[in-house]
UniProtKB/TrEMBL annotation:
Single GO molecular function: S-(hydroxymethyl)glutathione dehydrogenase [NAD(P)+] activity
UniProt-recorded name of the protein: Alcohol dehydrogenase 6
Species of the source: Seriola lalandi dorsalis
Reported cofactor(s): Zn(2+)
All residue ranges annotated as the Alcohol dehydrogenase-like C-terminal domain in the record: 204-331
One cellular component term from this protein's GO annotations in UniProt: cytosol
Domain Alcohol dehydrogenase-like N-terminal: 34-162
PROSITE patterns: ADH_ZINC (PS00059)
Keywords, alphabetical: Metal-binding, NAD, Oxidoreductase, Zinc
Listed GO biological process terms: formaldehyde catabolic process
Amino acid sequence: MVTCLVIKCKAALAWEPGKPLAIEDVEVDPPKVHEVRIKIVATGVCHTDWEYLYGQGMKVRPFPLVLGHEAAGVVESVGPEVTKFSPGDKVIPLFLPQCGECERCLSPKTNHCRKNWANMQVGVLADGTSRISCKGQQVYQFLGISSFCQYTVVPDTSLAKIRCDAPLDKVCLLGCGVSTGYGAAVNTGKVKKQSSCAVFGLGAVGLAAVMGCQVAGAKRIIGVDINPDKFEKAAVFGATECVNPKDHKKPIQEVLAEMTDGGVDYALECVGDPAIMTAAFESTKDAWGSCVIAGWTETGMMNVVVEKILMGRTLSGTYFGGWKSVEDVPKLVDDYMNKKLKLDEFITHNLPLDQINVAFGLLKSGNR
């Protein structure tokens, strides 16, 4: 089905960095070749969205733009040459594509497809333009998605079709944070049964990492966070104990080493802070300790003592939890529907689009 109508709708627009989002009337163009237009039903508010608008850890991207990249919706229309989607399909847009044809897609070693990658990183689609405009001005699509808009257009290689009975206000979380943290433990870290783990940062990504460690059969899962209000929720996801670095005079890596007779088997960093990344790495046991970096920063530099690598520790990073996005996200939805994966427990608030700045405030305060 090919449509030629522009859709007028609402979006939370970032006109410039450091300023609250503005609810604006926007126009969303029809999908072009190999593109799909989606009605966004639900979107999560990810720390990466906040960080780009207010923080320092992201590379510069052009404004104005519509943020949001963790969502679920329904296909409204499809462009020419789209064969895998039809109007009415339930879908999850993906900031990580999977074309299924490139060397990376065909390799089991990585999920890092680069189809349309460079363009989507700067907020445009394959032809170098976005499909959203406001007051006659092009609006850039954050990571090629822009889910803080009632409608958006994405490439058909950056979209997962999911089962029709999935609740979109829950499975939207699989578009980023939950998949990233969970996969950091089960895919990248390959956490083993009866192992000890430390998860640094107990936001959504960290809680998902805790859940992954529990599913993998870890016997000891230590949550690390400076906000003790998060400890009760961490226990729901499988944390066996939690530690607040502020309660100790020693560096947290030394505290963990004392707690675990030399260090944990696995450490998962879910904050995106280079200093915490170093602490996580140094909290692992020499000879076989493994640290996975899941927290996001594009500009930070991590300090690593080479001897700690030479003594047998490993350090790795994960992007979208190592999942092959198009094929694996529907499986994660199935796991949720079959009660093998928690999602409801991550949700603390449900807010309408016009309260997006309230949502950002809750995110930054940790009351989420």
